[in-house]
Amino acid sequence: MYSEKVMDHFTNPRNVGKIEGASGVGTVGNARCGDIMRVYLKIEGGVIEDAKFETFGCGAAVATSSMATELVKGRTLPEALEVTNQAVMDALDGLPPVKVHCSCLAEEALHAALRDYAKKNGLEIEGLPEPKEDTHEREETEA
Ligand code: FES
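That is the input. Now the predicted structure with FE2/S2 (inorganic) cluster docked in place:
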């Protein structure tokens, strides 16, 4: 049911953990399954230097968080916006239809972290979408 890449990123997830003093932190939860993801970004000079995540959710949520953080590292902010849920799924050689929302949660967590970064720095990131309706975004209180 899952591709080898999904199994690899689920059993051996990359970038697990938190970044102290992150430039942006985004926490989102899916209202239906209850899974939660938090993404930390370290941004210097408009480039994502590091990305980490904590996920309390299903295997596909772990795999998509792992791949999403891998894909955004070293990218500029406009490039990071190209890391959509479809891009994450493609990089994982696909997901079963019932697990597509897990990749959407990864995209949302990334966007939430970028929104947090923009808010903290009084910036506007062109093309950064607003939160989706079925996603609960939490207000971040960390520095
Ligand atoms: Fe909801 Fe995977 S089942 S994020």
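Residues 30, 33, 35, 57-58, 60-61, 99, 101-102, 105 surround FE2/S2 (inorganic) cluster (CB under 6 Å).
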